[in-house]
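Notes from the pairing session

We agreed to fold both candidates in a single pass and log them together. This is the raw record for the first candidate, unedited. Please don't reformat it; downstream parsing expects exactly this layout.

Candidate A
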Amino acid sequence: MQVTGLFVHPVKSTAIRPVPEAYAGRAGLRGDREWMVVDAEGQLVTARELPALFRITADSDDRGDLWLRADGLPELQVPRPAAGAVPVRMFTRPPMTARPADPRATAWLEAATGRAGLRLVWCDDPTRRTLNPAFTREGDHAAYQDNSPVTLLGEESVRQLNEWIGSDPLSHNRFRPNVVISGAAAFAEDGWRRIRIGAVPFRVGRRVDRCVMTTIDPVSAVKGKEPIRTLARHRREDGKTWMAVHLLPDGEGTIRVGDPVIVDD
């Protein structure tokens, strides 16, 4: 088995960004979901309720500054905030603090999405956030990823899903994984407990339960019924639909496209 794709999402819910390599640490892949968009009350705003976020391309540079792009708008450089703290909340989880971005980002986001009052914030310290103790340990951290620092998806699992769907095949991008691999049986990743990607060890926390955001085409931002409709027929358990797995890094190091993937347990 080997890695066939690595992806980061510098701003949560914006366009997926392929990378040839990424530094993996206890809080995930460097540059992944370190920023997020919040409303005037500090609540996370995602593409679930604002699909226009998918049309924003975000990249971060070596200094940690952010670059935002969208059709019809000038590129905006957002320096990594050096100070400041505002309360923010992800879904119904306990509030945290984040550093507010340059106010110019608010006007830019309104122009890009058509929604006023949006703010961009940066996670200056992922260790402040606690994760689900049911499948994580002390020392596991994440910035603004949903439930774990990293997710992994097998190409064969996507291929099997598309065979079930039967038409209009979906890309792995619908599931916004960090790591895509090939060479395993469909859904084999569900049963793994420990793996190594290159020289970096990971625990496999649990499967990923999928939400309606996977039904939004990341290119057109149009919502459909797949893949949730088909996953509900074939991959439904405990009232949820499952696709991909959560990974928890047990070490640090650079992982690359082409790296071998070894199952240790």
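Candidate B (folded immediately after A)
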Amino acid sequence: MKKIRLTELLIFIFSTELAGVLSGIIAGNSFGLYSSFEKPPLSPPSWVFPVMWAILYALMGASAYIVYFSDNDNRRKNLAVYGIQLFFNFLWSIIFFRFQLFGFSALIIAVLIALVIYMIMQFKKSNKIAGYINIPYLIWLVFALYLNIGVSVLN
């Protein structure tokens, strides 16, 4: 195994976390809004979301780091897919919370799920771990789509 380049790893993780933080800031009062929505069964309390997203963003950043330093010829393409899915992730909170376009935000998550499935498949070609550590993210996105559709129907 190659030596871990801690500074670079932290840059990948920090920049991914920053995308989530900026999206949350632009989205506005997501905690207050989430509390005011009628929610479907299995909806977690609002404190769960920042904890989950912090973990998932760290895993995403770590996977991008692994791909960046892999010997795979498609590394640039794979990182482009990573950037595109991160952009869709960034947009979702803004569309859902700031603009409350629940149907459109569900469409964004559906596209995001497809992108993440593709990203996982491509990352696995570079490094299996880089692909597999995004599976919790994919599962969370499927759950988020359920919640998004539930909020859309109930509100």
